[in-house]
Specification:
Belongs to the ABC transporter superfamily. The chain is α/β, with parallel strands linked by helices. 38% of the residues lie in helices and 28% in strands. It has 10 helices and 10 strands. The structure holds adenosine-5'-triphosphate (ATP).
Length: 236
């Protein structure tokens, strides 16, 4: 069953359309990777899904239409967006940032328990819980952004280039934690990645974007099995 099902999605900025009739799915408990060149519209896709920008077309989350809903209501349904650049509040501490992640939640009593859960996945954040977020390393800030998204108790996480600018060792560690979250909590993931090999290793479904259109979609083997796509995206 699809957790997220998108049909004929159009979106853009002002008069300029960036996405043209996008069809895309994320299965329940699954991981879909969106790959594409710079400017292909990947970030715009995530913004359109979470209600940050105007869009038309059909977006279904757990079967129900969400394409007319406001961003805050979509977040409350369980869709957490981790934007490019991570969006942490630099003058607040790690823990204050995490608590903000739960701000749309109605069950405030659970927030303390969820903090413990985030610290279990990201022990490094616990060590730095009173440290100002702006003074964290790049990798720690990315983990904080993921931890903050987890505070929403999401069913789906939208991740925009989580590996961007991070050292390979940190990227491996972070993807290890993402796998754990996906496996243990059945949190589904839609991830935009420049690092195609990394994304294909994690995903059960891949979607290639070119200039705002989907040019290929299917399991990772489809990409591995197509010589020209393999050369273009995986370099072998
Ligand atoms: N806020 C904005 N206002 C106007 N145009 C925008 C805005 N953000 C992005 N665009 C344009 O939309 C197009 C798609 O950009 P988008 O950031 O979605 O691509 P991307 O695939 O995520 O690229 P990258 O990998 O470089 O992040 C680009 O032509 C970009 O210039």
């Amino acid at each position: 069953m699809s957790l997220l099902a998108v049909r004929g999605l159009n979106a853009g900025y002002g008069q300029g359309r960036v996405l043209h009739g996008i069809d895309l799915e994320v299965s329940l408990g699954g991981v879909t990777a969106v790959l594409g060149a710079n400017g292909a519209g990947k970030t715009t896709l995530l913004r359109a899904l979470c209600g940050m920008i105007a869009r038309d077309g059909e977006i279904r989350f757990e079967g129900a239409r969400i394409d007319r809903m406001r961003a805050e209501d979509i977040a409350r349904l369980g869709m957490a967006h981790v934007p490019e650049g991570r969006g942490t509040f630099t003058s607040l501490t790690t823990e204050e940032n995490l608590r903000l992640g739960g701000y749309t939640r109605r069950d405030k009593a659970e927030v303390g328990r969820d903090l413990e859960r985030v610290y279990r996945y990201f022990p490094r954040l616990q060590e730095r819980r009173t440290q100002q977020a702006g003074t964290l390393s790049g990798g720690e800030q990315q983990m904080l952004a993921l931890g903050r998204a987890l505070m929403l108790r999401p069913k789906l996480m939208l991740l925009d280039e989580p590996s961007f600018g991070l050292a390979p060792r940190i990227v491996q560690e972070m993807y290890g934690i993402l796998r754990q979250i996906n496996g243990e909590e059945r949190v589904s993931v839609l991830v935009v990645e420049q690092n195609a090999a990394l994304a294909l290793d994690f995903a059960d479904h891949v979607c290639l974007f070119e200039t705002g259109r989907v040019v290929m979609t299917g399991p990772p083997d489809t990409l591995h099995g197509d010589e020209s796509l393999r050369r273009a995206y995986l370099g072998y």
